[in-house]
Amino acid sequence: MNRSRRTVLRAGSVALLAAGAGCVSSLREDSAEPDESNGGGDDPGGDDRDNEPVVEMAPNGWPSFQGSPGNTGNAGSTAAPTTEPTERWRATLPGAVTDQVAVVDGTVCVSTDAGTVHALEADSGDERWSTTVDGGRSQCPCVVDGRVVVGTESGSLVALDLESGDEVWTADLSGPAMGPTAADGTVYVGTREEPAVHAVDAASGDVSWTFEPEPAFDVVNYPAVTDDHVFVGTEAVIEARLHALDRSKGTEAWTREVTRAGPPTVSGSLVMIPSTTVRIYRHDRFPRGGFSGRGSNAASPAVSSDAYFAGSTGGRFSAYKRDDVGVHWGIDLEHPVASAPAITDDAVYVALETGLLCAMSRESGETLWTRSLEGEDASGPAVAEGAVFVGTDAGRLVAFE
What confidence tier does 145 reach under pLDDT thresholds 50, 70, 90? Predict the structure, then answer.
């Protein structure tokens, strides 16, 4: 199973970090008290929260995990079904699809746990090309500058030509490669066993810099990237950390201890990471407060300009107000939330552990529709090209419109 989703699902919730200071209200609907264990008393900066948070939208389709370098899960005004959908197409692949797909320029890129990478037509599901990558595994590919980039268990980062599937370059890394993220022509990827974070030139495959955490701390999937920093989680057996790295040279700006770690999310002043409690800090690592919901918030959230959206292992899914961390709305989905949600201006899409795909109103949380994936475990949704794309552990990839 996918480490970014399944391992954290059993042990995590979402920790939130923020550039803004200020107080945090308790949750009104999730019946949880705010976590003030690292509370705002350490914060010397006052309430300098940004009033108009920057939310990074998927720039061109859904080119990587959660659609953007910041892992925000926000497809903006992209058209997607808000009423009972039809199945645009269904493809059967040779291995499980346990993570999101990437969608760029009418092409769906997907990797499976059989080590295969496929490019499919977004409109029809017809296969354009497929190839086998030595040590490949199911993860969300990263598409950058006409290259489809995937990490492998054999310790390499492989770039394939988007048009043909031909190998463009291979970068040998320090250990098994986790899911990559790209921004401005550079791919950022972590490794485990011999843990490190690497910045790799997308054109050549040359490594620009390497950061090495403590040896016991494996790097998790999908770093989050801003103009100045790369945020990445690391995990040891019973502890974890969030690191802020200088994007230009890979030096560590700061680190914070968390209980578990998953892919971070960055949007404006907020930094979020799946962990076992939900805490809010400033980018300069001073705490802003925190909260926890029913069960644990196991997967990365999605973020809009006024809210963030997260589900829990207890089957609760909530929209939290961005200004005070109160609950805007919350609903019971009755099944554990298995993956990171995707949002548009109108809807929230989330996969449940029991193989259901659920669409909700972004404004109210009202259920718009649900579709069963035949009892199969579902990957996280990707929203692009007028459709919602979701894979299953039985090797199916389905497009709903």
Answer: very high
Report H helices in 18-110. Answer: none
Residues forming a β-bridge with 230 = 225, 245
The whole-angstrom separation of Cα 46 and Cα 42 is: 10
pLDDT digits (tens, 9 = 90+) for 216-229: 999 999 999 999 99
pTM over 0.85: yes
User: Would you mind telling me the total number of residues written for the chain in this entry?
Assistant: 401
Domains present along the chain, CATH in parentheses: 3-400 (2.130.10.10)
Four-residue CA torsion sign, 274, 23, 328, 77: negative
3-class SS of residue 183: strand
Q: Render 304-357 in DSSP notation, one character per residue.
A: -SSEEEEE-TTSEEEEEETTT--EEEEEE-SS-B-S--EE-SSEEEEEBTTSEE
**Contact status, residue 141 vs residue 165, Cβ threshold 8 Å:** no
Rounded to whole angstroms, how far apart are CA atoms 398 and 81?
14
If DSSP codes are grouped into helix, strand and coil, which group holds residue 240? strand
State how far the Cα of 270 lies from the Cα of 24, in Å rounded to an integer.
14
Residue 218 in 3-state DSSP? Answer: strand
Q: Which residues of 221-255 are buried (b: 16+ CB within 10 A; e: fewer)?
A: bbbbbbeebbbbbbbeeeebbbbbbebeebeebeb
Q: What is the spatial distance between Cα 89 and Cα 102, in angstroms, rounded to a whole number?
A: 16
